[in-house]
Amino acid sequence: MKRAVLIGLMILPLCLSAQQSNAGDPTPSGTIPTSITFPVEHVKKPTHADLYCAGFVGKSISHSNFVAGGLDSPFTTQFAGGEVVYLKGSGYELGKEFTIVRELKDPNRYELYPGQWATVKAAGQPYEELATVKIVDTRNKMAIAHIEFSCDTVLPGDFAIPFVEKSQIDFHPAIRFDRFAPANGQVSGRIILAKDFDSELGTGGKVYLNIGANQGLKVGDYVKAVRSYSATAHDAIDSVSFSAPPMEPTQRLQPSMNPNLLNKTNGPQIEVAEMPRRAVGEIVILGTTPSTATGMIVFALEPVRLGDRVELDQQ
Fold it and tell me: Any idea where the domains of the chain sit in the sequence?
């Protein structure tokens, strides 16, 4: 029995080593891989709804084509899959498909990161993708469209834009996720907004970035979401934890967390800016505009937040 246990203990490290070698590239110099520093990343594959309901941030679209009502107007103002809607405007052809989108405004006026509203305004207008419709009748002044697929209810006043088929995403096998990787010098940007105006997101969440096709980003690329401790130190709420009283009263020399912001002590002076940044999640690009991109979180070690930085991750 002891011999069997001993053999099992000898085999276990070999199995773990084989798993690690199958989960990514060789270990970079200067580190030892552990389950904390190099967890294995299993990505979540986007569904049809993920691709066609993600929304986007972009330049303003034409307001000439829009939903005017439906079969039971004015008694019904919300329309879903399987129903018909009436479209006002031009360019409608029998059998042609359109995407119904909604221009959005965020009722929450609290900035979740410094300069959020200016950053979003510079990036463009947020849009929600609501449904895909097909033109089934053009004999009247308004075209009649059948809702083929719906993400959310369609309302009068929502806009119709030509349907564009989304590219399928290629997925990599499980790899090691480098949690403390230094900056790689690749294309970088920021998460400026999220679907449904969420502020913290996990796997499956949709985010909008302030980098796009003009920076070389394309559908199927992966970007890593990263966060520095300096960002926490400059947050009006989270930074309060840096000034919390010590948890251990027997510590004679108590440290100062970031002496640039807080009162210094006689203990160690801890520079928050020198702490390693940490990667918090992996995002796959679902769509791009010239200056923005829509992404889906396919792997998250902790909640991904608005304001987190992103950089192209060379898989």
Answer: 50-162
Look up residue 204 and give its two tokens. Answer: 């499956």
Q: What is the CA radius of gyration of the chain?
A: 25
Low-confidence ranges of the chain (pLDDT < 50): 1-24, 259, 261-262
User: CA-to-CA distance for 14 and 10, rounded, in angstroms?
Assistant: 7
Task: Tell me the pLDDT tens digit for each residue of 168-187.
Answer: 887 777 788 999 999 999 99
Residue 197 Rama label (left phi>0; alpha psi -120 to 50; beta): left
Q: Does domain 50-162 have CATH number 2.40.30?
A: yes
Instruction: Tell me how far apart the alpha carbons of residues 258 and 264 are, in angstroms, rounded to a whole number.
Output: 8
Which pTM does this prediction carry? 0.85
Q: Considering only CA atoms, which of 45, 79, 63, 47 is closest in space to residue 150? A: 79
What pLDDT does residue 193 have?
97
Instruction: Report how far residue 255's alpha carbon sits from residue 232's, in angstroms, rounded to the nearest whole number.
Output: 18
Q: What tokens appear for 212 in the block? A: 């796009």
**How many Cβ atoms from other residues are within 10 Å of residue 244's Cβ?**
8
